[in-house]
Amino acid sequence: MADALVKSDFLGKEDRAEPKPFVLYRPTAKTGLISWLTTVDHKRIGFLYGAFALFFFLVGGVEALLIRIQLFSPNNSFLTAQQYNEMFTMHATTMIFLAIMPLSAAFFNFIMPLQVGARDVAFPRLNAFSLWVFVAGAIIVNLGWFLPDGAPNGGWFGYTPLTTKAFIPGHSIDLWVMGLQLLGVASIAASLNFIVTIINLRAPGMTMMRLPVFTWMTLVTAFLIVLAFPAITIALVELMMDRLFGTNFFEVSNGGMPILWTHLFWVFGHPEVYILILPGMGIISEILPCFSRKPLFGYPIVVFSGAAIGFLGFGVWSHHMFTTGMGTMATAAFSLTTMAIAVPTGVKIFNWIGTLWGGHLQMRTPMMFALGFIWLFMIGGFSGVMHAAAPADAQQHNSYFVVAHFHYVLIGGSLFALLAGIHYWFPLIFGRKVSETWGKLSFWLIFIGFNVTFFPMHFIGLNGMPRRTFTYDPNMGWTAGNRVATVGAFILGIGVAVYFAVMIYTRYKGEKISRDPWDARTLEWSLPIPVPEYNYRVLPTIHARDEFWYDKHHRAEIEQEQAAHLKEEHAHGGIHMPFQSIYPFTAGIGMLIGGIGVGAVDASPASVLIGPKLAVTLIGGLIAIVSIFLWALEGNEGYHLHPDEDGAEPGHGAQPSSGHPH
Amino acid sequence: MSTAAAGVIDHHHDPSTSTGIPNKKLVMWMFLASDCMFFGCLISTHLIYRLHPPAGAPNARQVFSIELTSFSTFILLMSSLMMALAVNAIQKGNLKSLRASLLTTIFFGCIFLGCQVYEFSHFVSEKHMTITNSILGTTFFTLTGTHGLHVLIGVIWLTAMLIYSYTGRLSEKDSIDVEMMGLYWHFVDIVWIVIFTAVYLLEYIS
Amino acid sequence: MSTAAAAASSHADHGLEESKFQIYVQIAMLLAVITGMEIVTVYLPFAAWLLVTALVVMSAVKFLFVIFYFMHLRWDKPFCTILFFIGLILGGGTMFGLLKLFGAAASVPILNQ
């Protein structure tokens, strides 16, 4: 510990930094707008991710309902073809990048540091930067709704040559490209942070094999993000260069090959779907043990399978391309690897069932969503394995069978798990417990609505209905299925509305709880609610997996340990907290402006030296670069807190409360 | 547990982390792993387009100048040496040596960039290969240009560090920051090692 | 740790530091020599596969020297090496997969046939 102090940057006793030039002044507001814009607290950042994610989830939901209205009747004219293209593009892009991923990030941020026994992530300002760049990306991707060229309309997968300038000359695609690039930067920065936090900031005694499964899945997901996003970054750079500078990456007349885009996209895209599901699997692995009143069955195997899924996920990308004529060898190879990846997935399901088996099941709302997850994700897995067989996929590809498959794994899987997680951790984050009756009602509406919407799609898909087409003929036999699906979509919408209403009501008026409402097993539940800014008054020492469960059954031992550690930490100057900073936010603003410059501003006629496009881009870039420099110059000092015994803080760095030697 | 000699900083071990690896070192290695995928995909694009060049494509052997590229490769390798010496210097608290090494690294980096700029303009004006008029031009300029951009970012970072070293605020305890920057610079060098072989040398084998 | 032992160990460190300087310079010379060898190799009158293999091996040797010595992996915790190699192997594997896919007969552009 002494060495840590020698190396620590937190040597100041003041709660304000020493006087410096005004640009290096550290914000200290704890309430109000500035406190949110300058926050580096992982809990606040997690909350913001969650709030934005839930907002965009509603946006994506509306886009879905508009699609379903259009498809209610054959040859419908509710949406034009162009509008329909925008809807399915934006529904997918929004749900994947602006809803599911940031909702997962909300949990990574709030819960993971608590589960490893840390006081924050390794790089708090980088964490804030990720958030604001995510917001910038979200804005850019949606900017087209308000501009004459319209919202992105080339599909969420952006296949060339449709998305080249020759076929979609307007800015809709440029905004899609720039938005995704920023979202990629945000994701990679956040994931680097999470990896270092999990590897390096664990509390003493927290070996890797004692980590909660949610934290393990956070780690694997972070690795996937960091290693998969570069592929789409390159693909997007190549597309952008074709669109902006007339390069030939996908220009057939000059030797380009559009299929290259498809490969690079799916090199990213397949790991992306594991990025979408693994956090959910982690959440389920926490909820099932808690509500079965027994530990997770086969912890090492569950962890290993998660890592295996992540790794193998890089070797299956061309199963999205079975019908592109890759040749027999390639098609067979990818078919095999795709079937292989079903194995660790299945292993996890058996382990979850093993967790339930013989348990004393408590059918609370989070448990209902978790059980729904197991069943629905399995169905999605079955249709997935059907796709793995390339000859079968030749029939299923581009049909509604695919739509059914991925909605089962993404809604039945990811979304159900995230909704379960919201219910489960709601008391920890907001100090209130959701009513069981209303929670269960929202569950049943969502469950029924979801199945009514997507189960028929298996059938209309196998009966030939293609994806991404805005009308269909009345004599194809698809009308009944579509009608049922649309009705189901509205039931699902009502279920989501109830879910949201319940959450908002509970936030302000729900039953208050103080500590550990579920009698849970993992460390985050050992904290007082609301969680103090510094998380742990005394950093815990870990003795076992499910450390909190161990604590509850070895109270005397833990109390002694904590008292001893508290003395040590006081002797070393108290709790070290990082200062807030405005620069992550301003760097995000810079990137927003730069992204708008590249994506939305028209290029100028050649006679002007610096036209509006270059000017806006350069200004944005300059703001971002200056922000980063000032971020580096302001240093990573912090201040000290000395909470007294019942957790109350007698003011930052203020006079010590009685009885504590400093 | 006290360190015996006062002020001896262990640059290989950070006791405040679970693994002993400093956070900044860990994050940089992870970032470099990510950058491997980044350049891997870009180099793949170039090599894929070299598999079946279209008719009428420029002949790479006639466009490239192996002498110039060999020279710039050598320069970049030497800049890596100077960077390693710079990190060595700051770990011993030798600011003077650090500044000299950093300056030399920057100098070599700038020479490399200068060679790239010359090469690019030469290809465009004399060899008539532009980024838009052929697939070889597209992939070549994008790949080497992206690498050049990485070098430029490195040079800017090095320059900022050099300037900062004159403010009196840089000392041995900041070695990790210089080391982190060094890792980035070396990575840019090893990417060039791959590019030199895959983009240039392979073209000369019939 | 007594001061005598500490003095001895820091002296050993000092020795290691000196030799590190020399190691770096020697490796830089080696890298320059290998680069020269690479340039000569392309003009040798051998089969293409042999020359390509030789080039790949020489580049790999340079690559490994830089990462293990200049980038310090040899003296750092093995975990850093593992992390980097994960990215390297994945990147290399993806490149291999893509080249195999595009090299297949089915993928030759129609315009070229």
Features:
heterotrimer, B: 206 residues, mainly alpha, Four Helix Bundle (Hemerythrin (Met), subunit A), 6 helices, 0% strand, elongated, disordered N terminus, C: 113 residues, 2 domains, 3 helices, 78% helix
Q: What does this protein look like?
A:
- The complex is a heterotrimer of chains A (662), B (206) and C (113).
- Chain A has 662 residues and is mostly helical.
- Chain A is 63% helix and 2% strand.
- In chain A, the strands form two sheets. Chain A has a two-stranded antiparallel sheet with strand order 1-2.
- In chain A, helix 5 packs parallel to helix 18.
- The longest helix of chain A is centred in the N-terminal third of the chain and has 36 residues, at 81-116.
- The radius of gyration of chain A is 26 Å and the shape is globular.
- The two termini of chain A are 16 Å apart.
- The longest helix of chain B has 31 residues, at 95-125.
- Chain B is built from six helices and no strands.
- Helices cover 71% and strands 0% of the residues of chain B.
- Chain C is an all-alpha fold and 113 residues long.
- Chain C has two domains: 1-76; 77-113.
- Helix content of chain C is 78%, strand content 0%.
- Chain C has helices at residues 3-41, 48-70, 78-103.
- Chain C is flat and about 60 Å long.
- At the B-C interface, helix 1, helix 3 and helix 6 of B face helix 1, helix 2 and helix 3 of C.
